[in-house]
Input
Amino acid sequence: MTTDEMATRATHEPERIAAERGAVIDLRDVSKIYGMGDIQVHALRDVSLAVERGDYVAIMGASGSGKTTLMNIIGCLDVPTTGSYRLDAVNVAELDDLELADRRNRGIGFVFQSFNLIPRTTALANVELPLLYGGLKRGQRRQRAQAALAALGLSDRVGHHPNELSGGQQQRVAIARAIVTNPAIILADEPTGALDSASTSEVLSIFDHLNVTGRTVIVITHEVEVAARAKRVVRLRDGSIVEDQRQAPPQGPPPYLMGQVA
Ligand code: ADP
Ligand code: MG
Output
């Protein structure tokens, strides 16, 4: 291989991986421009990113580098200005709003920094909410929500309202809500940003567990301890990927479970 061919190959690495292994997430040359006229903001510039099923990816970068914009596009909450996005090999640009919402509801679990729970509503009702779209009967919804809360150690908090729970407990309710539909992908935007260190390690253990049981996990963070738990770290600067580091193989257990993280 000539140097030029090697350079070409390196440039097309995301596409090559996507083509060979069947990426669950496949962004190509994605740009996002907000606004019009002279107040345009290039939130993302030519981002190509392929994520394999079962991988655990941390997306890092300074405030304003485009992390949330990228998460919104991956989660089908927003669309690229230019470039293409294939989710599970389906070009999302070809889906109508209903199909897109359906894919989002069944395929992706979202976790946010500020939990985004519905106030004055029990933990159980919060976790049941995503199941309303799935056509399950009331009893089945209740049962599934109770099981998800139990899996997160919250069986004794099902009747509590968000303001009666600690930050860590609220985030666990939010994670129960994210996983109750059994999505293949978990997308988390600064999930530990509002948590103390004890709650942070609880949440990180939950993500390790979700990944080891087959979910693809994507976590946006600016915390080094959080990124250390991922199998791959992607860094954004000014809307571009400037670094892409593999910390553990995509198919094996995450680094912490291998004893590679202190
Ligand atoms: P991060 O999550 O890394 O802090 P964001 O993706 O939120 O970054 O934002 C990237 C850039 O896009 C920032 O300059 C931000 O001000 C801008 N931006 C984000 N959302 C919007 C929006 N809805 N309208 C206009 N500009 C936006
Ligand atoms: Mg953000």
Notes: Residues 197-212 form the longest helix (16 residues). The radius of gyration is 19 Å. The beta strands are 25-34, 41-51, 56-60, 82-87, 90-91, 108-112, 185-189, 216-220, 232-237, 240-246.
